[in-house]
């Protein structure tokens, strides 16, 4: 399984960053350039324990559908989501939110495996890890800019 971790400090309290990270509409905005949409939205329009969502997007010029489930919600410390159907052999995204002197340390841990055995492992090493790292960084850029763009700053 391939794995990587991204960390970012956001100038907002953990509860605010946690809530933004669970916002399905914010996720759609963060992936707009990939044409990502929700084919099936979570019940009530927000992610809660056990929520499922089906995403549709185009990556590498190929249309994909990915169905995921949100679980292990521990407000405001973190939650996880995993693919339950889609293009990966396995995909798990762990979201953690830690108090930091400048706001919140947001940590994303992605563990995944492309299908097709040895060929998939080669794909993961050659380009999939870097591609997914860029996608998560784009998502985090959106979370950061939307939260910090509201004019919120924490006292030093």
Question: What is shown here, in short?
Answer:
The protein is built from three helices and seven strands, in the order βααββββββα.
Q: Strand order of the main beta sheet, please?
A: 1-7-6-5-4-3-2
Total helical segments: 3
Which structural class do the helices and strands define?
Answer: alpha+beta
Q: Tell me the distance between the termini.
A: 40 Å
Reported for the largest beta sheet, the result is: 7 strands, antiparallel
Shape: globular
- The overall strand count is 7
Average pLDDT over all residues: 93
Residue windows where pLDDT falls under 50 for at least 5 positions: none
Helix content: 25-40%
Strand content: 35-45%
Radius of gyration: 16 Å
Secondary-structure element order, as H and E?
EHHEEEEEEH
Describe this structure in words.
With 156 residues, the protein is α+β, with helices and mostly antiparallel strands. 30% of the residues lie in helices and 41% in strands. It contains 3 helices and 7 strands. It has helices at residues 14-21, 24-30, 117-148, and strands at residues 2-10, 37-40, 52-59, 62-74, 78-85, 90-100, 103-113. Helix 2 (24-30) packs across helix 3 (117-148). The relative contact order is 0.23.
